[in-house]
Amino acid sequence: MPNYIDLLGDAVRSVIPMPNRWFLEPGANKRVQPLVQRVMQASGRPPEDFASGAFVDPNTMEVLDGRIFSRGAVNAWDGTRPQMFVEEGTPLAAEGGLLDANLVRRSLWEPVESPDLEDFGFLSTVEAHKSASAPAKHYYARQIEYDTPMLLRNTHGGSNPTLRPRARGSVFAAGDLGQMMMRSSGQVHPVYDTLRIVDRNAYPAIPVGDRNRFGQLLRYSLLAPATLGAEGLLNQQPQESTAPAGVPVRQ
Fold first, then answer.
1. Long-range CB contacts (< 8 A, 24+ apart) of 44-51?
2. Which of 49, 72, 114, 116 lies 20 to 30 Å from 241, alpha-carbon distance?
3. Taking all residues of the chain, what is their mean pLDDT, rounded to a whole number?
């Protein structure tokens, strides 16, 4: 069976989330300095302009911060070499609660009776923001697949992580890799093979007997329109219904 990246076809682009330390601490990050120099040369920008890092196409050296792509994937693969891909196309506005992605280093978590996770150096995570009907929550997996437009969001903030891909939609999970514990909180979380971010309008349109193709529904996104503008996917305050989670809401 072909993997998700193969299915994206010729329109796929690789993306490297380059953290700010690669630009601001060259002595401690010598291995990546040839890439850093190529990015600065192609963009005509000095290292201090990358105080919050950047999303970069490693083939063209184009800085992709703020760009919206029609689909994408964040994949930890074997847990040692994370990769990110996006698909070209003209994205449409999506609906749903705000979802931010990130990678979590092994130093921040510990497997809990889960041998499949022992060799992983990274996990992918989706942070679902707090809404009127549901608390903020993190979900963890080997990879994240986006079947809804995604924004390569650079927070331009002062502290890491600053590179947080953002989307809106429902969160589904497939596969079970075990459990892990976050060392900072002591909380134990399930770890899935795949998290899928799906446009909230796609789920009700699927025949009931075929809805399990996305996996287990973890979080149903209620109404929270996203608009496209000069700044990309605007971070608007979600206007969500107070209907119980899992109940379809129609305008």
1. 47/23, 48/23, 48/24, 50/18, 50/20, 50/23, 50/24, 51/20, 51/23, 51/24, 51/156
2. 72
3. 81
Is the Cα dihedral 202, 147, 164, 61 positive or negative?
Answer: negative
Q: How many whole angstroms separate alpha carbon 116 and alpha carbon 97?
A: 31
The answer for residues whose C-beta is within 8 angstroms of residue 241's C-beta and 6 or more apart is 132, 133, 222, 223, 249
Q: How many other CB atoms are there within 10 angstroms of residue 124's CB atom?
A: 25
The 3-state DSSP class for residue 20 equals helix
DSSP, res 104: E
Q: Is the dihedral of CA 128, 98, 151, 237 positive or negative?
A: negative
Question: What is the three-class DSSP state of 57?
Answer: coil
Q: Is the dihedral of CA 131, 136, 137, 142 positive or negative?
A: positive
Cα–Cα distance measured from residue 184 to residue 189, given in angstroms and rounded to the nearest whole number:
13
Mean pLDDT of the 135-146 span: 94
Residue 189 near residue 134 (C-beta atoms within 8 A): no
Tell me the C-alpha distance between 194 and 172, whole Å. Answer: 8
